[in-house]
Amino acid sequence: MGVDGRLRAVVGLAQAMAAACAPRESVRAAARGARLAMDGSFAAISAWERERGCLRVLVNEGERRAGEEEFPADESYPVHDFPEIAEFLHERWVGGGGPHAWVESAVGDRPGRRGEALRRRGRGTCVVAPIVLSGRAWGELYVARDEGLADFDEDDAEFATVLAAVVAAGLAQNDRLEEARRLAFTDPLTGLANRRAVDMRLDEALEEHRRSGGRTVVSLVVCDLNGLKKVNDTLGHAMGDRLLERFGSVLSLCGALLPGALVARLGGDEFCLVSVGPSADEVVRVTEEVCLRAAELELGEGVACGVASTGDPIGPVKSSRRLFRLADAAQYKAKAARSAKPVVAGRDTAVVRLADTAQQEAAGERRRFRGRS
After folding, report:
1. Nearest to 54 by CA among 77, 75, 84, 71
2. pLDDT digits over 27-58, tens only?
3. What is the Cα–Cα distance from 351 to 344, expressed in whole angstroms?
């Protein structure tokens, strides 16, 4: 591949990463683009997980051998078996050099596991290029050729260094986009999901509920912290924030008992939990645990919880607004009665009437408003 071909390959790799819809797809695009650019048989991208002391393979692309999955669940190698990423490269940087790829061969005498791995998998040569983000080793790009094909050389190593830099730029962009997405759907104080995330999850869940003919149970728990204003007024807003964070942790801990549950802060002193799949009884049991744990917090005065579930006799639920109205009405009744247990729509028939009355009143207000306009 000539200079023009390599330039086109670099541009193509960057474009493929930018066009990917998810981080995993972006990593696969990077590995595939690097393999094609270098006429390789196989490529992999691995991340250095410092806390585990290992290189974890994110993607295997190209001609895979037995045991090499495209997206392995946990293919990882102790970094001390491949110390270049942690030691060899660092020494070069300290000496004034930059990250640079190198070539390994199945018949070479370089110490380490690279040659052994090449021989075991029927590959003749490989190029290893460090991926560096924010001045730190993030992981590596690995491209190999099968036995019988031309060996990589130093020119290939130079080109792999350029490709790794392009991959690093794409990964950095992904990180920024992922952080932006996370912030868009996260409550900044508690780290829980926010109202936008709840609305999206409920819409998806109710669509699944409709497709299943009502067999998929969708439940919503709305929680209102008691005593937050008193804490803010007497102890200060820092302590109020602490109460919100502590309750958020309680709700998250209890929500983990319901597989796939989404735990969120709606705003102010209101929180909620969305459950898809578990029965209404399971959701009520978990909500009772939430109430017990909230009552034991050193701050505040417990919590008022309302539950609305398609697993209970609440009538048809055509939209998330209906489920919210029912859960809100149940929570309102729990708060008014200072109930130590959750109030459950459908099991308390007054809640359904309360929600329907509120809906009718809201509709009447809208009609009167339109009549005046």
Report:
1. 77
2. 999 999 999 999 999 999 998 887 677 889 99
3. 8
Handedness of CA 137, 139, 141, 147 (dihedral sign): positive
User: Which residues neighbour 337 within 8 Å (Cβ) at sequence distance 6 or greater?
Assistant: 343
The dihedral built from the CA positions of residue 281, 285, 290 and 292, taken in this order, carries a sign that is positive
- Residue 49 near residue 22, CB atoms below 8 Å: no
Contact 218, 262 (CB under 8 A): no
Answer for the pair 14, 34: CB distance below 8 angstroms, yes or no: no
CA angle, corner 365, sides to 359 and 371, nearest 5? 140
Tokens of 316: 């048809």
- For residue 234, with 0-12 CB atoms within 10 Å meaning exposed, 13-18 middle and 19 or more buried, which class applies? exposed
- What radius of gyration, in Å, describes the C-alpha atoms of the chain? 28
What does pTM read for this prediction?
0.56
150 in helix, strand or coil?
Answer: coil
Q: Which two tokens stand for residue 61?
A: 């692309």
3-state secondary structure 73-121: CCCEEEHHHCHHHCCHHHHHHHCCCCCCCEEEECCCCCCCCHHHHHHHC
Among 259, 272, 253, smallest CA distance to 187 is for 272
